C-alpha cells in the first residue's frame, strides 16, 4: 500500500510516538491536536507544539534519527484539519471518550481523501461503535490499529476490522504496517481489549491474586515470573510500576463489566490491596514509588526498596534463595526450563503451576472469541508483552496431556476445544516435521500449516529441511536458495571466536566457487556482541603474545576477504553489532541493517582498541568525506570517527537501558 503522507490526530504520548515512527519510515506526517480554549492565547498550536517538544525529549527516544522530526508538521483541529485531504492514512489517538471521537470523526469525514485509510488507536472502545454514525464508505475504510507504547520499540500492532471494514483495506494496511513500519501484525476481533491486553492483563491479575493468597512478596513473584519462565525481565510488579498501577486498574475495571459471559471474569475484580495502593497514590514510577522504590543508601549508592504489603512502608529489597530457580538457570532451552519449574515439587512449582495453568485455560476459552487461532494469541502476547514463549508454546512445553490430567484431578474445568483436541489423538498445539511447522486449529479440529510470511526465511527450518553446507560450534554456512548462501553465527551472544574465523574463510571459498553471493546474517538475539574478549584476556594473562598476534591477523585477513570477495557480500546487522561484529558488517559490499541496530566499535570500554580493520575502514571513509570538502581541515574527519569510538561504550549503555525499559510498557496504550 502506497502511503505518501499520513496524519495523526492527537499529540499525546501515544499519538506523538506513532507520528515519530511514521517519520522513521520516511513518511511526511501531519500531527494535530486541540487549539487552546483560552482566547487570550494567540498561538493556536501551543498545545500540540508543547506536546511534540516533550515527545522529542522522551527516553527511550521515539526517533531513530533526530532529523526525522523534520518530517512532522504540527497543527490544530480548528485551523488545520482540512489538510488531511492530502493524506493517505489518518489515525486517531485522542482520549478514550466515544462522544469526543464521534465529533472528531465527523470533521474527518468532511475532509478525508477518497480511498484513504481512517484508523483509531483505541484500546477499549469497540470499532463498530466508533464507526456507527458514519456512511458505508467511511466504514469500509475504517479500521482499528492498536499500537503498543512506545510505538518505535514495541513490535506488536493489532489490526481490528469492523464488521463493515473492507477486507482489501484491512489486508493492505496490514501489509504496510508489516513491511514499511516493521511491525508484527496480529488480526484481532472487535472484543474488549482485543488480544494482548485481554490475555496479558488476565495473567497479571491472576498472578496478583495468587501472590495475596500465598503470602508472597512482590520481589519473590518477580523472581519467578520474569526471565526464568521466558517472560520480560521486568516480570510482574516491575512492569506494573513502569506502566502505572492506575493504568492497569483502569483496564481491569473496564474489562469486568464488558465481559459478562467470561467464565473467569472474577479475576478482574480489584483486590483490596490494589485499591489501597491506588488510594495511597503508590502508582509506580510516575509517583516515585509503587511496589518498588528507587532510593540511595547512606553511602549514596542506588538501592531498590520494596513495599511491605502489610505495613505499606518501604524496606530494603531481599531476594529469596530458591534452589529450583538457581538450578533452572543452567537450563538453556526455554521450554525445558519452563517444564522443570512448573512441575517442580516446591513452592515455586506450586505458584507457577497455578498461574500458568489458569492462564492456559483462559486463553483456550478465548478462541474463537478474541482470535481465530492459537498462533494469533501467542504472537500477540510475545510481541506485546515481551514474552519469549507464548501461552500455547508454554502449554506444549509442560505437556498438554499430563497437565490436563492434573487439572482434572484438581477439579478444574477443561476448555471444550482442548478436550476435543485430545480426543482426536492430537497431544500438542504445535508440530514440527522436518522443518515444516503446523499448529492445531481449535476451531476446525485439525492441524494446519503455520501462516507463511512472504519474503521471510527461518534459518532453523531451512536447516531442518535441507541441512547445512558446513558447520562448527561457532558458525554455519547455509544454502538459502536462489544461488545465495548465508554465513550464520550461533555462538553465545554470536561472539567471534576461534570457530568463527575459519568458517568465514570457508564461506568465501565456497561462495566464490558455487554460489552467486553471500549473506552474513543470523536470527539470534543480536547480530554479534563482538570478539570473544575472555579468550583474549586469558591469552594476555598467559603472555601468549604470538597467539594474540595470530588471532588478530586471522580476523583481519578474514574480514578483508569479505571486503574483496569475487562474489557480492551483503551483511545484515541488527540489535547489538559491536566491535568485531561492527567490523564484519562494515566490510560487505552492501549493508542491509535493521532499524533497531546498535552498532559501534566499543572496545575502549574494556581497555583495548579495535583490531579487526574497523579503524582502517572508518579512517578511509573519513578521508573520502574529507576529499569532498577540500576547504575543511582533513584531520577533523578522522577525529570525529575516533571520538565516536571512544564514546561508543557510554552511548551503548544508554541505548541498551532504553530498549530494556521499552518492553515493560505493554499495557500503557496512551
What would you note in describing this structure?
With 670 residues, the protein is of the alpha/beta class. The chain has three domains: 6-187, 3-Layer(aba) Sandwich (Rossmann fold); 196-449, N-(1-d-carboxylethyl)-l-norvaline Dehydrogenase, domain 2 (Orthogonal Bundle); 462-661, 2-enoyl-CoA Hydratase, Chain A, domain 1 (Alpha-Beta Complex). Helix content is 43%, strand content 15%. The chain contains 26 helices and 22 strands. An eight-stranded mixed β-sheet has the order 3-2-1-4-5-6-7-8. Strands 15-16-17-18-19-21 form a six-stranded mixed β-sheet, sandwiched between helices. Strand 9 and strand 10 (302-307) form a beta hairpin. The protein starts with 5 loop residues before the first strand and ends in an 8-residue tail after the last helix.
Count of helical stretches: 26
List the uncertain runs: 654-670
Instruction: Tell me the strand order in the biggest sheet.
Output: 3-2-1-4-5-6-7-8
Measure the end-to-end span.
27 Å
The backbone outline, from C-alpha atoms, is globular
Structural class: alpha/beta
**Integer-rounded radius of gyration:** 27 Å
Tally the structural domains: 3
Percent of residues in helices comes to 40-55%
CATH topology of the largest domain: N-(1-d-carboxylethyl)-l-norvaline Dehydrogenase, domain 2
State the total count of DSSP E strands. 22
Round the mean pLDDT to the nearest integer and report it: 91
Indicate the multimeric state: single chain
CATH class of the largest domain: Mainly Alpha
Tell me the major beta sheet.
8 strands, mixed
What would CATH call the architecture of the largest domain?
Orthogonal Bundle
β-strand amount: 5-15%
Amino acid at each position: 500500500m502506497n502511503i505518501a503522507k499520513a496524519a495523526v490526530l492527537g499529540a499525546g504520548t501515544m499519538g506523538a510516538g506513532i507520528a515519530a515512527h511514521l517519520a522513521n519510515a520516511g513518511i511526511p506526517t501531519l500531527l494535530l491536536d486541540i487549539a487552546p480554549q483560552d482566547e487570550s492565547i494567540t498561538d493556536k498550536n501551543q498545545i500540540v507544539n508543547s506536546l511534540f517538544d516533550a515527545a522529542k525529549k522522551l527516553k527511550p527516544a521515539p526517533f531513530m534519527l533526530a532529523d526525522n522530526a523534520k518530517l512532522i508538521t504540527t497543527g490544530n483541529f480548528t485551523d488545520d484539519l482540512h489538510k488531511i485531504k492530502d493524506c493517505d492514512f489518518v489515525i486517531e489517538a485522542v482520549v478514550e471518550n466515544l462522544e469526543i471521537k464521534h465529533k472528531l470523526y465527523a470533521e474527518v469525514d468532511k475532509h478525508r481523501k477518497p480511498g484513504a485509510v481512517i484508523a483509531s488507536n483505541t484500546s477499549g472502545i469497540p470499532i463498530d461503535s466508533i464507526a456507527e454514525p458514519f456512511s458505508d464508505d467511511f466504514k469500509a475504510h475504517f479500521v482499528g490499529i492498536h499500537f503498543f507504547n512506545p510505538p518505535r520499540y514495541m513490535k506488536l500492532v493489532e489490526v481490528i476490522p469492523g464488521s463493515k471494514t473492507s477486507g482489501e483495506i484491512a489486508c493492505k494496511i496490514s501489509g504496510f504496517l508489516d513491511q514499511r513500519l516493521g511491525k508484527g501484525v496480529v488480526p484481532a476481533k472487535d472484543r474488549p481489549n482485543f488480544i494482548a491486553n485481554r490475555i496479558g492483563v488476565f495473567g497479571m491479575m491472576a498472578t496478583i491474586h495468587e501472590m495475596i493468597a500465598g503470602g508472597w512478596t512482590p520481589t519473590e513473584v518477580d523472581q519467578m515470573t520474569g526471565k526464568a519462565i521466558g517472560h520480560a525481565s521486568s516480570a510482574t510488579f516491575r512492569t506494573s510500576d513502569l506502566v502505572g498501577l492506575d493504568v492497569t486498574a483502569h483496564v481491569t475495571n473496564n474489562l469486568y463489566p464488558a465481559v459478562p459471559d467470561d467464565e473467569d471474569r472474577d479475576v478482574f475484580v480489584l483486590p483490596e490491596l490494589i485499591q489501597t495502593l491506588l488510594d495511597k497514590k503508590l502508582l509506580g514510577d510516575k509517583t516515585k514509588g509503587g511496589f518498588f522504590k528507587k532510593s540511595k543508601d547512606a553511602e549514596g549508592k542506588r538501592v531498590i526498596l520494596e513495599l511491605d504489603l502489610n505495613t505499606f512502608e518501604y524496606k530494603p529489597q531481599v531476594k529469596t534463595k530458591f534452589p529450583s530457580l538457581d538450578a533452572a538457570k543452567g537450563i538453556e532451552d526455554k521450554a525445558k526450563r519452563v517444564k522443570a519449574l512448573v512441575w517442580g515439587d516446591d513452592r515455586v512449582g506450586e505458584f507457577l503451576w497455578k498461574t500458568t495453568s489458569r492462564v492456559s485455560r483462559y486463553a483456550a476459552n478465548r478462541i474463537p472469541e478474541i482470535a481465530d487461532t492459537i498462533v494469533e494469541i501467542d504472537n500477540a502476547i510475545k510481541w506485546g508483552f515481551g514474552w519469549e514463549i507464548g501461552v500455547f508454546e508454554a502449554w506444549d512445553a509442560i505437556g498438554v496431556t499430563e497437565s490436563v490430567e492434573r487439572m482434572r484431578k484438581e477439579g478444574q474445568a477443561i476448555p471444550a476445544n482442548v478436550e476435543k483436541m485430545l480426543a482426536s489423538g492430537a497431544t500438542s498445539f504445535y508440530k514440527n516435521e522436518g522443518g515444516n511447522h503446523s499448529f492445531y486449529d481449535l476451531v476446525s479440529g485439525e492441524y494446519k500449516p503455520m501462516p507463511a510470511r512472504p519474503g521471510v526465511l527461518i534459518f532453523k527450518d531451512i536447516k531442518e529441511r535441507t541441512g547445512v553446507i558446513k558447520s562448527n560450534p561457532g558458525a554455519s554456512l547455509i544454502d538459502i536458495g536462489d544461488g545465495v548462501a548465508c554465513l550464520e553465527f550461533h555462538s553465545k551472544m554470536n561472539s567471534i571466536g576461534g570457530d568463527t574465523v575459519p568458517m568465514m574463510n570457508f564461506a568465501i571459498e565456497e561462495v566464490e566457487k558455487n554460489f552467486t553471493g553471500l549473506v552474513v546474517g543470523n536470527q539470534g538475539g543480536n547480530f554479534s556482541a563482538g570478539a570473544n574478549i575472555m579468550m583474549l584476556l586469558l591469552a594476555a594473562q598467559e603472555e601468549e603474545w604470538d597467539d594474540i598476534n595470530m588471532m588478530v591477523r586471522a580476523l583481519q585477513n578474514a574480514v578483508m576477504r569479505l571486503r574483496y570477495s569475487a562474489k557480492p557480500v551483503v551483511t545484515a546487522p541488527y540489535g547489538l553489532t559491536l566491535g568485531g561484529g561492527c567490523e564484519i558488517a562494515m566490510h560487505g559490499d552492501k549493508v542491509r541493517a535493521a532499524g533497531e541496530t546498535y552498532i559501534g566499535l566499543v572496545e575502549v570500554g574494556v581497555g583495548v582498541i579495535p583490531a579487526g580493520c574497523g579503524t582502517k575502514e572508518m579512517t578511509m571513509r573519513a578521508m573520502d568525506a574529507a576529499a569532498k570538502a577540500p576547504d575543511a581541515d582533513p584531520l577533523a574527519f578522522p577525529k570525529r570517527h575516533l571520538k565516536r569510538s571512544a564514546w561508543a561504550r557510554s552511548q551503548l549503555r544508554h541505548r541498551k537501558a532504553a530498549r530494556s525499559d521499552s518492553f515493560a510498557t505493554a499495557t500503557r496504550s496512551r
